[in-house]
Amino acid sequence: MKMRYTAIALAAALASGQFAHAGEAEAKKWVDSEFQPSTLSKDQQMTEMKWFIEAAKKLQAKGVKDISVVSETITTHSYESKTLAKAFEEITGIKVKHDTIGEGDVVEKLQTSMQSGKSIYDGWISDSDLIGTHYRYGKILNLTDYMAGAGKEYTNPGIDLKDYIGTKFTTGPDAKLYQLPDQQFANLYWFRADLFEKKDLQDKFKAKYGYDLGVPLNWSAYEDIAEFFTNDVKTVDGKPIYGHMDYGKKDPSLGWRFTDAWLSMAGTADKGIPNGMPVDEWGIRVADDKCTPVGASVERGGATNSPAAVYALTKYIDWMKKYAPKEAIGMTFGEAGPVPAQGQIAQQIFWYTAFTADMNKPGLPVVNADGTPKWRMAPGPNGPYWKQGMQNGYQDVGSWTFFKDHNADKTAAAWLYAQFVTAKTTSLKKTIVGLTPIRESDIRSKAMTEMAPKLGGLVEFYRSPARIAWTPTGTNVPDYPKLAQLWWKNVAVAVTGEKTPQAAMDNLANEMDDVMARLERAGMAKCAPKLNPKKDAASWLSDKAAPWAKLANEKPKGETVVYGKLLDAWKAGKVR
Question: Residue 266 belongs to what H/E stretch?
């Protein structure tokens, strides 16, 4: 018969040190093996682990034996679920059930919990795209106040928040932290460096277009390169080569293609980092308080159906139909993701760095015999409406999120686990496994320097000043789950030709306004929408700020840069 502890008996056992030695012995085992390399020395790692052991004792004395948490299914979270959860249990004695499910399922379950007021899980890893939602509804724990108050005794003294590179994305308009970054990755430009370096292709490209084949700086160059490989080069090693890759199936993942900042790459928003202000990359305008949404349609001062947004959608459809494999239009995000690794794609404007590990596997057509990649990643090119100082693209930041009114002891234990899987003791190894860095110290580590040649520019990008212009959805979006679902249905009818890009974006903008009007009537804890009255669109369009007036020339001359010069610029602390 197993011994069952009452809270009093357990407290006495803990006080006597009965479990302390076991916890430390287990910690040493993990530190000596799985938790290497680390930016901390082994002694420093053990000091950090001893703190976790002592903090967990307090919760065990209150009867906390286990917790449940959830995240989407990506390599980083699978490592946490299978390896770090086990380590946490062995070291602290608290068992973790770490579920990994689809991203859409995480959002749906989170939304259900917010509506019911009862959290299904003790902790959540949800995208920082929900920061505007979390701030406004008042259901999510404010971590800044928690760490200074009720959670102070459970907050790792070595947490070093300044070392996290994504906290500006998880901070509300009140300057308080609502989520703790756990992993992040950007959508960047991807290209076959080996093909771009071929002298015969370089000569043919320059003869036709009048400038060098290289990393495109604008959409004009990207389009020229797509045309060149698809219709001029046509084949490489006896197989068709395509100058572009995308996906277009009517599916929720089609919305990610656009809410993940496709419009910002074209230049739809206002200037501002991390997000355009007062008009963001979704086209939502906020009032002078920088918090109250006032409209998405141009008629209300927004930019969702502005000339820049319509241009962005038009190019997305044109490029997919002209330059991508014919199967692409019927693919989802998951189906299209592995295609570049098959060796027939010359470049992709919108590629997530989360795919880095999968593009590096030995034997792939895009990997050299020595294990180095034939491909590279670089900052994405900008559309003609883009201006210096704007957001350049999207960065996913999956972040720990907790409900304010959940069981306090369970929340504290989940908070411990969140800190454990992002601690300096464990974070570098997790970065090496999943390639989704969250700490500056890890990015600058010797281990990442040694790995850099096989990662195609990932390390150089994250060490460069360019990375700050890749940001998640910001605080202008008042209810991410309700508004995000509008995008894919409207984009899909433009892909099929049922509606023109202008009509599709007009409908999207009006539907977004309708949802925000309902949110205005329903009320929110903070910064509920308050829509502007409709005015003639022409009165809003401008060449000074978003919504931007239509350009006379939407295809200026193409511009490129040699990849080596781009790397030199990064090393010198410049964006380009």
Answer: helix 262-266
Contact call for residues 70 and 101 (beta carbons, < 8 A): yes
Give the whole-angstrom CA distance, residue 88 versus residue 66: 11
Instruction: List Cβ neighbours of 247 (8 Å cut-off, separation of 6 or more).
Output: 253, 254, 257, 320, 328, 329, 331, 332, 333, 335, 336
Beta bridge partners of 345: 242
CA angle, 180 then 390 then 340, to 5°? 75
**Token pair recorded at residue 399:** 């972040």
The CATH architecture annotation of domain 187-394+470-576 reads 3-Layer(aba) Sandwich (3.40)
The residue behind tokens 């093909």 is 195
Start-to-end CA span in the chain (Å): 67
The model carries a pTM of: 0.92
Task: Quote the CA–CA distance of 335 and 315 in Å, as a whole number.
Answer: 21
**Burial category of 352 from C-beta neighbours within 10 Å (exposed 0-12, middle 13-18, buried 19 and up):** buried
Instruction: Identify which of 481, 266, 565, 478 has the alpha carbon closest to the alpha carbon of residue 390.
Output: 266
CA–CA gap between residue 344 and residue 348 (Å, rounded): 11
4 pLDDT above the threshold of 70: no
pLDDT digits (tens, 9 = 90+) for 85-108: 999 999 999 999 999 998 889 999
Q: What would the DSSP string read from start to end of 192-252?
A: EHHHHT-HHHHHHHHHHHSS--SEESBHHHHHHHHHIIIIII-EETTEE-BS------SSH
DSSP letter, residue 98? E
Do 7-178+396-466 and 187-394+470-576 show the same overall fold? yes
Backbone angles phi, psi at 127, to 5 degrees: -60, 145
Report pLDDT for 573. Answer: 65
Q: What's the pLDDT tens digit per position in 23-52?
A: 999 999 999 999 999 999 999 999 999 999
Work out the average pLDDT over 436-448: 97
Cα distances (Å, whole numbers) of residue 209 to 203, 383, 440, 480, 559: 10, 18, 41, 42, 10
Give alpha helix (H) positions in 301-436.
307-323, 333-336, 408-422, 424-434
Give CA–CA dist 81/408, Å, rounded: 23
Q: How far is residue 564 from each of residues 196, 369, 376, 573, measured CA to CA in Å?
A: 12, 22, 11, 14
125: β partners: 400
- Label residue 261 left, alpha or beta by phi (over 0 means left) and psi (-120 to 50 means alpha): left
d(C-alpha 351, C-alpha 392), whole Å: 14
Please choose, from the candidates 245, 183, 193, the residue with its C-alpha nearest in 3D space to the C-alpha of residue 215: 193
Encode 467-506: b = buried (16+ Cβ within 10 Å), e = exposed: bebbbbbbbbbbbbbbbbbbbbbbbbbbbeeebebeebbb
Q: Which amino acid is residue 205, in one-letter code?
A: F
* Domain range 7-178+396-466, its CATH number among 1.20.120.1730, 3.40.50.1000, 3.40.190.10, 3.10.290.10: 3.40.190.10
Beta strands in 371-515 (DSSP E): 375-378, 395-401
- 80 vs 199: CA distance, rounded Å: 45
Domain spans of the chain, in order of start: 7-178+396-466, 187-394+470-576
Contact residues for 93 (Cβ-Cβ < 8 A; gap 6+): 19, 23, 56, 60
Q: pLDDT (tens digit, 9 = 90+) per residue, 203-223?
A: 999 999 999 999 999 999 999
